[in-house]
Amino acid sequence: MKNNMKEQKVTEKESGFCIRKGIENMDPKRVVELLRTTEWAKDRSEERILDAMKYSVPYGVFDSNGYMVGYARVMTDTVTTYYLMDVVVDERYRKKGLGRVLMDAVTADYGHLYGILHTESADWLYRKYGFEDTGNSTDKVMERPGNTGV
After folding, report:
1. Sheet holding 81-89, edge to edge
2. Among 30, 92, 19, which Cα is nearest to 60's?
3. Residues 6+ apart with CB under 8 A from 8
4. 7-44 pLDDT per residue, tens
């Protein structure tokens, strides 16, 4: 039986966590730690993680003590398209609505643009923000693997 209750949206104020944007507000060591816990970036070098952050718009989720518990980054031309990447919430802080708080911040800034992301495990979250599976689309999602060293 489907739950017909309206989903409650968790805000920064209600969660006790805050979002910070921009490289100057990130904790580089913590960004590396968070990404090393992921399947997709576990082998990415620290240098590549930090360079990727430098050339993107990074977002961090911080607790009331300033400890970084989540991260995401956006690549964009700010006019037509954004690409959401490296979304991660520390496993100890999951199921508190922090992914939603992070997505609220990103979509507040870029939700009016065409958004792209790749995910293998959190499509349920991204669907809530209007992302759709392109598998049934007439568009083809194509990728060109690069020599990125992961």
Report:
1. 18-21, 57-62, 68-76, 81-89, 114-116
2. 19
3. none
4. 334 556 656 899 999 999 999 999 999 999 999 999 99
